[in-house]
Amino acid sequence: MAHRPTSRRLLSPASRRVVAALLIAAGILLVIAELLRVYVLVVDWRTLGVLGAGPLAGVLLGLGAGLLTSYAGWRVGRAG
Question: Which of the residues 27, 32, 42, 54 could staple to 70 if both were Cys, CB 3.0 to 4.6 A apart?
Fold first, then answer.
């Protein structure tokens, strides 16, 4: 009985480019959203004089997630 050759590639090159572009776009949008949150935090800090650690940690995690998502998209695009 003949065995099918195993392939590591799950997506065609065109599909891989689409997935990479979507991941990069999602990462960029997430970074933009987090930068807007930074702006809101700075405005609140200037008006109220208080900056909480919780919202700041959330922004840092969001920025990290956005950068990681863009990096994953870049790696997917380079792998094809």
Answer: 27
User: Would the pTM of this model clear 0.90, i.e. be above it?
Assistant: no
Residue 22 has pLDDT above 70, yes or no: yes
